[in-house]
Structure formats: C-alpha cells, structure tokens
Design goal:
Length: 132
C-alpha cells in the first residue's frame, strides 16, 4: 500500500530516540507525512495546544514527566476530536481499556506492525464521510 500524506502532520510522542528515528524513517519513506517529535507527555500536550495543523498523534504510553494516558486526557480537554493512536510495549487487555477510557482512538503494540499502523492511521486521517 502506498500512502501520500505530505499535507498531513503527525505528532510522535516517544522518549526513546531509536524508536523515534525508526518511526520517522518509515513514515517519511512510505507516506511523506510531516513529523513533530515530542520527548515527553508534557511536551506532547503543549505541541497539540500550540499547533493547529497536527492531524494525528502517535502516543507512547511510557513517557517521562507525565505518561501517555495523562497526556491523552489533557489533550482531550481542548482537542476532543484529534485522532490519537496509542503505542505500548504491554499488550495487556486492561491497558487497552485504559487507553480507550482516556480517549485513545486506536492501539498498537511494540514492536509495531507497520501495515497495521498505516491502515489505522489511514482510517483516522481519512474518515469515510457518510452522505445523507
């Protein structure tokens, strides 16, 4: 699948630089999307508050300052409809529940299945609008 999201921007909240560089490389190469990097939960919230052109957030759960769930809760207060995909190393069911409760729209586990991530991003970036 080829995606072309060069007019779109994703905020990647990830404290591990290697993980970020990998995501950045793959996304840039396969989708042309613009990428903003937040290294902790507080920065992620600030960037979402300051940038109206962010189309999607890829949120790691294990973040410094405040964790991904707290960041999602705060972002939801001022951007209720911003699509947020949570990425976590723990594939626990209660984590999934917590993510959805906090306001996450989707969920991927690490190591990330890229096809799964891209198709989830595509659905959130290009919602099918129903015409009445």
């Amino acid at each position: 699948m080829e995606y072309n999201w060069k007019n779109r921007t994703v905020l990647v909240a990830e404290d591990d630089e290697m993980s970020f560089r990998y995501i950045e490389l793959v996304l840039t190469r396969r989708t042309n999307i613009n990428i903003i990097w937040a290294i902790n939960g507080e920065q992620a919230v600030e960037f979402c508050r300051l940038n109206n052109h962010i189309d999607l957030v890829l949120m790691d759960l294990q973040l410094p300052v405040f964790d991904g769930l707290e960041a999602i809760r705060q972002i939801r207060e001022f951007k209720p409809n911003l699509p947020i995909i949570v990425q976590t190393a723990n594939a626990m069911n209660d984590e999934y529940e917590k993510c959805i409760e906090a306001g996450g729209d989707g969920y991927v586990t690490k190591p990330i299945n890229l096809n799964e991530l891209f198709s989830m991003m595509d659905v959130l970036l290009n919602p099918i609008t129903t015409h009445h």
